[in-house]
Every structure is written in C-alpha cells, then in structure tokens.
Amino acid sequence: MQKKILVVGLGLIGASLCRSLKKNQTSNKIYGYDTNMDVMSYALQNNFIDSIKEDLEVGIKDSDLIVICVPVEKIVDILNTAKNFFNTEKVFTDTLSVKSVILDYLIKNNLEKSNNFIMSHPMAGTENFGIENSGEDLFLNATSMVCPLRFSKPESIETIKEFWKLNSCNVIEVDPYSHDKYLAAISHAPHAISFALSKKINNLGYTKEFPWVNSKGSLSDMTRIANSDPEAWANILKNNQDNLVDFIDAYLEELSNLKSIIKSDSVAELVSYLKKSKPVK
Fold first, then answer.
1. Count of CA atoms in the C-beta half-sphere (13 A) of 273
2. Which pLDDT score, from 0 to 100, does residue 247 have?
3. Which helix (H) or strand (E) segment is 246 a member of?
C-alpha cells in the first residue's frame, strides 16, 4: 500500500531523506514542506519530492507519515501545528539531535500520553549543510535511534523502525530520557571540542604559515566538523547544555590527568595511558 510521506524541513537531513525515499521506497508519495519557497522549488525541480506543501497543516492532513527534520530552534513552531494530529492514525517522527525540547513541550502541553509520535534520531550527517549538499546515500549503514514514549502504540513504533530500515539504517531503541546524555558524549562534545581546537589554531595564526593544515593530516581529522553550521550547532549545544557541561568537566579532568602524566618522568606510565585510550570497537 502506498504511503504518503511528508518531510518537514528540507535542509541537509530532510532533503537527503527525500532522496533516500525516492531511491529505496519508490511506491511512496513524497511531499516536502519548508518555510523557504526557494528550497521547496529546488527540491521539486530536482525530483527530490513529488509535490510541495505550502501549508503545514494541509500537508499533515494529506499525509500518513510525517518526518520532522527542522533545526532544534524551529521544533516548537512545528509542534504547535502537529499536536492537533496527535493520537490519530497518522504517525510522526523527527530527526532532532536533542530530545529534551520535545519532551518539555509534550509535558507543558499535557501531551505526554501521545501515542503516535515516535521520536527518532538517525546518526547521519556531514560538516556541510543545506539542500545543495544533500545525498541519497547519507543514511546508508547509519544507526538510527528510535525513542518510543511510554504510551506509544506498538504498531507506530514498528512503522518508524521499518521506515529507517528501508532507508538503509541500522535501528536501535533508546530511552528518550537518556538520549541527550548519550548524545552529549558521542556527538555534541566532539563538536564542541572541534570548534574550540579550530578556534585556538586560528588564534595562533598557524594557518597563515601552513595553509594546508585544515585539509590534510591529524589536525584536519579533528577540525573537520568545526565547519558545521554555526547557528544550528549553537542551538543544539545550548539545548543540551547541562549534559554537555557535565561531560566537558569530566573531559577536562581527563586532559588534566594526561597533562600530569606527560609532565612526569615516566614514559611507561604514558605508554600505558595511550594503550588504554585506543577506541573500543
């Protein structure tokens, strides 16, 4: 049976999702909504979507599955319209990197018992942003976290899990109230560290003498994600500030420990530390 899917927000993630849907789920009807008409026109002209929905409420009414792919600072505006369709036969999900803003909204609006909004977060993306940098294979072999709520309908949960699997993702289930703590460590802090390192190198002026350092070598490996959208990431970091600050404090303690070992006379202790630091796979 053909599903009508509305993708809300046609930036890197939303547009890539549309392209993935076109490639992997050809029987579906793909609608696109964005506040920027030029972006919607671009998506339509390039066959990322089948048609434009200029009005969000109409788009939701006409759709079976709604995927919210907007930046975190835009989610409340979308939820103000979407909430009128909670606890219906429609199924909602999102791609936000921070879940607390959604959870807080549901609590404040007495919507905790919503049964058809299954939060999710595909761990996919690049340091590039915008529809022009989208790709049909962005989600290939990515891990998508599915975060059901207490009252989520089992069939809605299964719909979202199957949706991400059909978009070439590996799917895991994650507690929505733990999501942001995990993301602080595995995504948000790495971005914050990359931004800070890149800023320090900029301040030192080394790029004038060595203009290649941000394109090749170990520094470029660490600063690549500092090219990410500053406005989007400022809002992500601010909306997860408690978890992020806790992790940064712990990370600074770890750096201080490493600093002490480097300053000591023991090479063996430093070798032991570095051996223990290899990533666990």
1. 15
2. 98
3. helix 241-263
Give the residue from 8, 6, 183, 175 showing the smallest Cα distance to 103.
175
What's the rounded Cα separation, in Å, for the pair 186 and 189? 7
**First vs last Cα of the chain: how many Å apart?**
40
Strand partners, 4: 29
Tokens of 211: 């203009």
245-272 pLDDT, tens digit each: 999 999 999 999 999 999 999 999 999 9
Q: Can you tell me the distance from the alpha carbon of 52 to that of 65, in angstroms, rounded to the nearest whole number? A: 15
**Which residues does 221 contact at the CB level (< 8 Å), separation at least 6?**
none
Sign of CA dihedral 67, 70, 72, 76: negative
Contact yes or no for 228/129 (Cβ under 8 A): yes
Residue 1, pLDDT > 60, answer: no
Reported in sequence order, the residue ranges of the chain that DSSP labels E, i.e. its strands, are: 4-8, 29-33, 51-52, 65-68, 91-94, 119-122, 143-147, 170-173
Structure tokens at 249: 């404090």
Q: What is the pLDDT of residues 190-200, one digit of tens each?
A: 999 999 999 99
Per the document, the length of the chain is 281
The tokens for 181 are: 């703590």
Q: Which amino acid appears at position 237 of this protein?
A: L
Angstrom distance (rounded) from CA 74 to CA 68: 10
pTM attached to this predicted model: 0.91
Let me know how many helices (H) and strands (E) the chain has, helices first: 13, 8
